[in-house]
Automatic annotation (TrEMBL), chains A, B, C:
Listed transmembrane segments: none
Subunit structure: Homotrimer. The subunits circularize to form a toroid; DNA passes through its center. Replication factor C (RFC) is required to load the toroid on the DNA.
Location of the Proliferating cell nuclear antigen PCNA N-terminal domain: 32-107
Gene Ontology molecular-function annotations: DNA binding; DNA polymerase processivity factor activity
Gene name of the record: pcn
Role according to the record: Sliding clamp subunit that acts as a moving platform for DNA processing. Responsible for tethering the catalytic subunit of DNA polymerase and other proteins to DNA during high-speed replication.
Official protein name in the record: DNA polymerase sliding clamp
Highest taxon of source: Archaea
One GO biological process term: regulation of DNA replication
CDD domains associated with the record: PCNA
Species for this entry: Haladaptatus paucihalophilus DX253
Classification via Gene3D superfamilies: 3.70.10.10
Keyword terms, alphabetized: DNA replication, DNA-binding
InterPro entries according to UniProt: DNA_clamp_sf, Pr_cel_nuc_antig, Pr_cel_nuc_antig_N
Family listed: Belongs to the PCNA family.
């Protein structure tokens, strides 16, 4: 099989709206990042690359993922918008070995997405986008973030795991006085607190901020994270948390928005 | 412990019908290959080596494994025929570390198989061969294979995994016109197809062939396969599939015969 | 974060009875060794280091672990005695990465143990020592060990795993005539026996010994063992078994005492 893994198939596809080739690790990461929140999603293709916006069933967390065309080995598409069973897609792309290339071709006659790995073709039936939950248009302008932090992902990961041991909720915030980013969770007997001072942060735009979040969503986001050295957080007072980081050598970008919980009492 | 791991035991064994020594990886692979189909089996020892014929309880698939005496560090036996609890044998040999040698001695008085790993001896009670299912004499002359293929095991493995995602059955065949080996499975919404052209096959004797198989057996056979680069398949029209490949650096050979399903409608 | 990981916290702690810093692997091993028998335990701190004595709920097995101050990166403490939920402590220290340092500070005001990993602080509520089971004062003088063995841990480990396949009990002993250390277990159909002759033992003080033990405890002790090359056993006739070995490059020492079962009939 040659590098693009497509060969004779191109001639057979009829009207091709879409034909892209990408390496296994990139597509596996892409699927995992969205799968953290949803089982099915919209995929938008245009000349710049792909975009995947999604919102979890409880409408607490949203994700917006973009993967620029530079991440692809081949990228030929007209604008396209499809609905996908993400769990099924994850099982399929999970079969590829490290370093293998996968090709995706949309067969406009059958309305199936033909996924090719080696000499294997999996024709995945698509979902009618009208039936897949659509997140509201996500624009950051709506949220008045007061502070921004870039921290080592390991610190945040450990804070979320530890908070999960004592509580269902965690407060994330910025302490302007102490010039630090913090996370706090209180349990019946135990407490967890993270306090990362400015000189330990990769980047820091301090501003008073604190909001309470359900830990389940932060754990899901943390579990899906690839070996990312740093993660960017934007916070405010009782407003959503934005979690952003690049992947696929910078060609991809993921942003999660997690709504805060209204603190009881 | 010296390399053979047997020392004083040999003097104690009484009438030895059988005494062989083999490395952990070889015996662990041997057991796994047969365990894919059955929980108990016959073992035949003669001057050439061992032979293990078995048939699964549903009499759909059969395996015939041979391991030549060259695979053994020591091989002293008269002709012998024993019945073994394969699950138990697997647990025992699984305790040996990579590179360790195991010695097997048949104690004719106790009718137990003494398995030695290091300074540990496990005396395994044997099964009366008369109570263990015996496969019919398997001779390939019965089947009119029309085609033969040697393909990279990764391609077949992925095809079986993918087919398992959409259906209980998969059709394997040779397309004489397109000069290729193929696998196809159809589900409610999704389809899977593998098409390996002649120039991608390690070896190819084309001839029209197609049969439908239950995926469960192919998955079991695939899971038991060690890191084998290539696998030989023999097919025909609505006749069993033969899957063959060597192991233990060529000293071992395994052949599975999987009966076809009669296609409904 | 500097090496000790403590910085500003020291100033905040109020009356510090205790402040120690230790690497992840050492504390994770320490917790695992005691967790093999109990869910909660006493920790004693003095100028020499820490001591953890514990007895399992069924009062069959006891452990006495010591970890000298040389195992710590920093060790500042007055004599202290605290009660700890060991399962919870295991989850906490399990979050540290290989090579990371953890600091433990006892906050005398809150009576919580503040555990610091990176910039994360977990305040663990302690248990009232009066409510935690206390093992009787363990002194070896009470037991008349007749023999002592130092064997490769792999041999003992395999013997325990194998015995567990055939029986709930295993006899450990020393055969003075054959000058060997042995283990034997008898099942309904299968038998297991280990026989390590003197020249295969790292050290050997022979003396007639044999006792019957419940395998569950030996399995738990075996599972908790780090990559220890050798283990020291002391045995007698129908008296407890002592299992001892060093860890943390010799700074730590663990001893288990497992009571024998009175053989039925």
């Amino acid at each position: 099989m040659d590098e693009t893994g497509t060969r004779a198939r191109q001639a057979d596809a009829g009207d091709q709206l879409l034909h892209v080739v990408v390496d296994a690790e990139t597509i596996q990461t892409t699927v995992a990042l969205v799968d953290a929140l949803v089982d099915e999603c919209h995929l938008y293709f245009d000349e710049d690359g792909i975009r995947i916006p999604a919102m979890d069933p409880a409408t607490v967390a949203a994700v917006n993922l973009t993967l620029g065309r530079s991440a692809f080995e081949a990228y030929e598409t007209e604008d396209a918008h499809i609905g996908v069973d993400l769990s099924r897609l994850g099982d399929i792309v999970g079969m590829a070995d490290r370093g293998q290339l996968l090709s995706f071709t949309l067969d406009s006659e059958t309305r199936k997405l033909e996924i090719r790995i080696g000499e294997l073709t999996y024709a995945l039936a698509l979902l009618d986008p009208g039936t897949v939950r659509s997140p509201p248009e996500a624009t950051d302008v709506e949220f008045e973030f007061t502070g921004s932090v870039v921290t080592e992902s390991g610190e945040l990961s450990r804070a979320v795991k530890a908070a999960d041991m004592v509580s269902n909720h965690v407060t994330l915030g910025i302490d302007e006085e102490r010039d630090s980013f913090y996370a706090e969770a209180t349990g019946d007997t135990d407490d967890v607190s993270l306090a990362v001072p400015a000189d330990e942060l990769v980047d820091f735009s301090p501003g008073d901020a604190h909001s309470l979040f359900s830990i389940d969503y932060l754990r899901a986001i943390d579990r899906a994270m690839p070996k990312t050295p740093e993660v960017n957080l934007e916070l405010g007072i009782d407003i959503p948390l934005a979690v952003r980081y690049p992947f696929a050598d910078g060609a991809g970008s993921v942003e999660y928005l997690v709504s805060p919980r209204i603190a009881a009492n």
